[in-house]
Each structure stands twice: as structure tokens, then as C-alpha cells.
Amino acid sequence: MPYSKLTESHLNELRGLVGEHCMLLGPQITEDYQRDELAEELFCPEAVVIPESTEQVSQLLQWASTHGVPVTTRGSGTGLCGGSVAVVGGIVLSTARLNKILEVDEQNLMAVVQPGVLLMEFQKHVEDLGLFYPPDPGEKTATLGGNVSTNAGGMRAVKYGVTRDYVIGLEAVLADGTIIETGGKVVKNSSGYSLNHLLVGAEGTLAVITKITLKLLPKPEKQISLLVPFPSLTAAIETVPKILAAKIIPTAIEFLQREVLEAAEKYLGRRFPDSSAPAYLLLTFYGQNVVELEGVYEKTAHVCLEAGAVDVLIANSPDRQETLWQTRGAFLEALKAMSALEEVDVVVPPSAIAEFVQFTKELEKELDVRILSFGHAGDGNLHVYILQDDLTKDEWRRRAHQAMDAMYARARTLRGQVSGEHGIGYAKSPYLQNSLGSIQMQLMRGIKQTFDPKGILNPGKIWRENVN
Amino acid sequence: MPYSKLTESHLNELRGLVGEHCMLLGPQITEDYQRDELAEELFCPEAVVIPESTEQVSQLLQWASTHGVPVTTRGSGTGLCGGSVAVVGGIVLSTARLNKILEVDEQNLMAVVQPGVLLMEFQKHVEDLGLFYPPDPGEKTATLGGNVSTNAGGMRAVKYGVTRDYVIGLEAVLADGTIIETGGKVVKNSSGYSLNHLLVGAEGTLAVITKITLKLLPKPEKQISLLVPFPSLTAAIETVPKILAAKIIPTAIEFLQREVLEAAEKYLGRRFPDSSAPAYLLLTFYGQNVVELEGVYEKTAHVCLEAGAVDVLIANSPDRQETLWQTRGAFLEALKAMSALEEVDVVVPPSAIAEFVQFTKELEKELDVRILSFGHAGDGNLHVYILQDDLTKDEWRRRAHQAMDAMYARARTLRGQVSGEHGIGYAKSPYLQNSLGSIQMQLMRGIKQTFDPKGILNPGKIWRENVN
Known about the structure:
The structure is a homodimer.
Chain A: H1 8-18, E1 23-24, E2 47-49, H2 54-67, E3 71-74, E4 91-94, E5 101-105, E6 110-113, H3 119-128, E7 131-132, H4 144-150, H5 157-160, E8 167-173, E9 179-183, H6 195-199, E10 208-215, E11 217-218, E12 222-230, H7 233-245, E13 252-257, H8 258-268, E14 279-287, H9 290-306, E15 313-315, H10 318-329, H11 331-338, E16 341-344, H12 353-367, E17 371-376, E18 381-387, H13 393-413, H14 429-451
Parallel strand pairs in A: 2-4, 3-4
Antiparallel strand pairs in A: 1-2, 5-6, 6-10, 7-11, 8-9, 8-10, 12-14, 12-15, 13-14, 16-18, 17-18
Helix pairs in contact in A: 7-12, 8-11, 12-13
């Protein structure tokens, strides 16, 4: 379907709807609005609109629907799959001014927020009240709207689950401008198809989310981390299912390999507390009291040592823990500083991670391209990076795509999925299609058609067929 | 759309597909297959088919699709909204022989089951392995397929969530016989629209679920219950948000009123440990050790006494706890033994329960019909019963429908929903429509159309328009 390009008269109408101060045009549209953190290519929208209310979003979509103008919703632009870039032009709808924490309901342990609230702001706000928002994606400057739209996961998913598990209600604007509310301030709901869960992870292709009701927990009082060196990466990762089989659920289990660790040390300009081993598991435990935690981490240490760990280092002060987790948190930036990257965000059963990482090591040799990985060993979500280093762009892309095809195919045979937490955007859409097959893609297409018959919402994402 | 009636030649084709031993016809179709526990009316299917494999389900649906024959999937028939009865005739597909626990994966804390496995069988099976399936709907003879299709909740939802939160993968057969797999053995997933979450709670109207992958937890080692008498029902219920606001998350918080308690004592033929008070909160706490639990229940006792509780009785032996919870578990049967009932299963924010129960008391007076309630105070899910007692059927129905209209309207203004855990079936469909409004019903209709264009799967549920 051909989309309309914005004319001067269109722009005047838009000014009438939202006011000139809520629009960016021409040179005001900086590079930031033309890409996300994937940053493969720039796509310049014809206008950026920054609405200040649900009503403005509604008016904007009603207008866009009438005129066949595509609308791509964007939070902080921290995505890694191009989900929030305007690949066919049209309007970028920025949620930057829909950024209020509307309510923290301490009686029900719930909060209501606008989509442009930053994850880090919200986490701090509720923690200051003794409450806790468990989802903890690595990118703290992401917006909650973006987190909901990609069903972002993060490190604490082992114990606490992902964003989806905390979204109990949404206000959203449909493509034609109609405002709907799904779910509510309810923690149980069996009232028809879950439109709420359909909008979570839909990457802005079904509706524009304008309000989010989130479930909260009491803030855990105590926290302890373990850094466990292993003689090999395989030995480290193979320990993870043993921990789970010992009926221990840590808050997070990450695996680190020396090569990535060294990159992070260089990037941060400081040393990691231990660098004697080729690989580590980094675990954290949250709880309400020390006694509870002691029992669990002692049991974990025992399992790790039985599985061949060289040592178990305990970090129980906030400072020591922060050093460990800050280093882990810098991995992506550290790799980016070294080389251009192609990223894979597969998720497989935790027991299959060792096999999967081994497979990437074989691919590395076979295709002669550097492949590094780190990730959420406890929940099976791996981040695998294929580095350009000194390859030509074309050659690197060729090898990277071979590697990616092979990895997604292997993930599928392990009953895994294309994306654990980053979403599909435009970058992963061919892989999604291969993974799910045409029947499921058709079902999704039918859903899209139901919500957005003119295809104006974030075209070119999840599928590519609407891209010109 | 008119559906085809089964002819003798149809039945012969069905025999060829699944074998005569997998079919019930004519007088073999006992009353059990003509109703669920709502039991308002009998609907006799033309045939009951009891397939033994996913392939048979696939062949059956392909056949039914070709011939325009409706198929209603049924587990144990323990539903309370008529969700599994064949309101337009056709075939009842019983999952009774798809009843295998296929795998308990201790390394990943996951299990794979067929839909006909009973909840109580599965709970026991995993507990014997030191594992734990948290959802705990009251009806233990329900099937897991039924639990998934209604997104059943239960008492432990306060702490552990509902069935949906544990369903990570499904195998399902579409209306045309195509077999799909959604999700997988993955605890994180951001790979396109969540068809998995769409099938959960869809009451068999979108596909027939043939395999379920469930997340498990380690079995909690310790358990303690508190029975807390209050001077009034309002005082009891108003304490619940205070417990949550004190940052305590019990595993379950139920409220009991004397009139219901007395009915249960009579029904069970034994006395409840305490019957001095007009109302009680019954709480339970699960944990890994006694120290952890002691801290929490002492804090809870303090909050309850501050809020006006008469006493706090601790039950820490398995026997004493069983007595308490068995009595609670008998409430529905006890009320049924007293009178015919109309049931409401609304869910509201926990802080609004006191107001809602007060409202039912006013309705009781205003409409001169006995209204009793009990339920999950901690998660806001109430079960309200309108009793026939000695009213004529017509008069009772009239008053009950007035009461229900008023209650659903009030739930809506409190940001609640029509059903917390029982689903919609045919009995609640008009209320769902009122609650969600035509836009959301149209979206759901579009989804239904995408999955089941001929409308053969469980017609007359969620909507009524397909009923002849």
C-alpha cells in the first residue's frame, strides 16, 4: 500500500491538532530520531510529533488514519532491532512528553504511568517508597512504553519474570483514534481474549500505548551476589541447569567470558575484582532477611564447587556488588567500542545454553568471524555478537548472515525462539518468519489487519511487506 | 451461520477417523456431557469424540471444518459458565484420553502435559519430585486444559499469579486441522504477537490445545496459616489493603463470613476451629524456612490486631491447616446444597473489595434476595452468590439479573472486570459485552475470524451471535 507523503497543508493541519511546539520538522529532526541503537541505517521521518496527552494521540491517529500517513511510536530509541524507526517515513510519535508517573497505589501495590517514563526513574521512584518493580532490562534509559512494547526482560527474569508479567492494564489508542482500556487494576482476569497481552510485545504495530498499569512488589531488604570462576566457559554454563535442578532460583544468573570481561575492563578503565579464570558465573539473590539468603547461597556455592568451580567469591556489601554488576552492565557498550556488531538475542531452554554457545564457537571457526556472547544463563536468553573487526562491511555482513541463519535454525531445533527480550523490529523479521512459519505469520497478519486495517501503525516491523 | 447436523454418513466418516471406541452416541451421551457445573440447562451434543492423539484432533477438526460441524472442547466439565457445553449441538471433543504427563524437565523446571491431565494429579506428581505448580484453583478435578482455557486463578494468586503466568508453550490445533506450536521451553519471549497468551483464556474458541508446557518452581518447604477473627465483615476486608500496604505478600488471603462458614460446617458435618466471630481472614504463607515465615506472620498479626482483629490464631501443623482450608474449599458445595445459585466472579482492586461487598449487602436488602459472598480478598477476586431459597424460579432469576447488572456496573466503575477466574462461557457473555463495549468486542471478533473463519470452534461462547 502506498503511504501519503506529508504536504504543507498536512503540516498545517498537524499544527492545528498538537501545536507547533509539539512538532519537529526538517533540520530539527536530528539523527537521534532517524535511528535506534541498532544504528544500521538512517530513516528520516517527515515530521516528529511529541503529544502531551492521550487526547492529542487520539486526534493525531484519527488524522493519520484518514490521510493514510504512517505513524511510528518512539520512546528513548534504545531498541536494538530498529523497532522505533520510521522505515517508510511519515510521522514519528515521540512519547517524551507523556512522561508522568500518575499514581503509585500503595494499598494495591500497583502504579499507573505514562509510556514515556524512563525505567530508571520509575525504579527509583517506587524504591524510595519501599516498593519494587522487578523487570530490569539492561538499558535503564529506556522508557516503560518501550519496555512494554518489546516485552523487555532483563537480568532478574530468572526469579521475577519479564515486563509482561507486571502489566495488568493498558490505555491504548487504536489506529483510527479510538481510546480503549484493557485489563485494569486487577491481578486476575478471565474476561475474554487478553487484548492486554496482545498489546504487550506488539512493538507499536497494533495500537499506541498511552497509559500503563503495573504490578509492584515490596522491595526486597537484602541482596547478595556470588562471583564464581570456572576453568572453562562450558563448565560455567553447564552448571546453570544443575543449580535449577537443585531447586534454587536465584534472582539472576549471568555468564561472563574473559574476552568480554577484558573488553569491559578496558572500556570502563578499571579492573574487575577477579580475572584469573576464563569464565565466570555471576549470581545474585534477593530476599527479606540474611538467614533466608545464607541458606540459599551456601547451597548454590556447594553446587558450583561440585560442578568444578575454582572458587566462590561472595559480595555482600552494596559497593562490591555494584562493581560486579556495573561491569556486567557495560558489556554491550564495551563490545560496541571495539567493533561494529550484528546481534542475536535468541532464547533457548536454560539446559541448552552450553550446547548453543559451543555451537557459536564452532561457527566462529568455520566462518572465520569473531563471535562473542554473554547473557542471561539462568533464563536461557543469550546475546551473541558477530564482530566486524577488520573485515569489509560486505564480507562481514555475508558471514554474519550465514552465522545468524545457522544460529536461529539451531535455536528452533532446541525449542527456542528468535528473540528473548529485544523484539523483532525490521532487523529480525526474516528470521521470525523462518522460525514461526507462514501459518503463524498469517495469524499475526490477521490480528494486525483487525487492529490496523490501513496499516498505518509502525509499518515494516515484524513483517516487511509494507515497506516501499 | 447455520451449522450442519450430523448424518449417519457423517458418523461413519468419524468412525473411520477416530475409531468407534473413541465415540459416544445417542444414549451413551449421559447428562454429564450435556452440562458443566453451572448446570442451568442441558445441551445434548450429537456426538462425543474422545481422541487419543494430536493427529486425531487434527483430522477431526479438518473434517469438522470441511463439513461445517461445530466442535466444543471439554475437559472435566467443572466450569461454572457453560464454557464447555455444546450450545448449538455438533461434536463435544473430550480431552479425557489426552491425559499424559509427557515430561517433567527438572533441569529447566518445566513440564509438558496433555490437556486432559487433572490438576490434582499434576500437582501431586510434581510435588513428589520436590517441585511445585503454583496455580491452585479450587476445583482440583479440573483438567489443566480447562485451567489454561479459562486462565484459572485460585487462592495462591496473591503471591504466585494465575495459570497464564505458568504457560510458556502450547501445541494447538487450528479450526482447519493445522497444528501449531506457540512459545516453547522458554521463560522469555519477544518474538512477535503472543499467540500463546491469546490462546490462554480463549475458552477453546480459537484453537484446541493439545499440549501445554508449564513453568515450575521448587516446592516451598514450610507453610503456616493464620485464622484471624474480626468483629465485622467490613473490618475483616478493610484489613487486606493494610496488609499489602505493609509490604506483606501472603500466598493467599481469603475472607469468610459466619453465614457461609455455618453452611460449610453443616455440609461437612464438622465444626470449624473457631466460630466466635462474624467474619474472618484466613491467610497462608509459604516459604523455604521457619525464620523467614515467622518474621512475616508476626508482622501480619500486628497489622491485623491494629486493624481491630479480635485475635490471631496460628495453624502451623499440616493437620490444623488442612482443617481450615478444607472448610474454605467446601464453601461452593455447601452453598449449592442449600439453594440454587447465580454466581458472579468479578475482580476489582483489592482495596475496593470492602466497598463492593458492602454494595452487595445493600442490594440484598433492596432486591429482597439472599446474597452471600466469599473469595480471594488478597487478589480482589470475589465470588458472590444470589440464592433462590424459596423464591419461584422466574422471580429469583429476575432479581438475580437485576443484582448482577448492578454488580457488574459497579465493578466497572471500580476498574474491575467481569471475570477473575471462571471465564465467560455463554452465561456471562452479555455482561462481558456491557463491560468491554463494542469496540473491544469487535477486536475480539476479528481475532476469532482470523483463527476460525467458519466459526466451528465452541460457538455461542464469549459472544452469543452464533447461537441458533
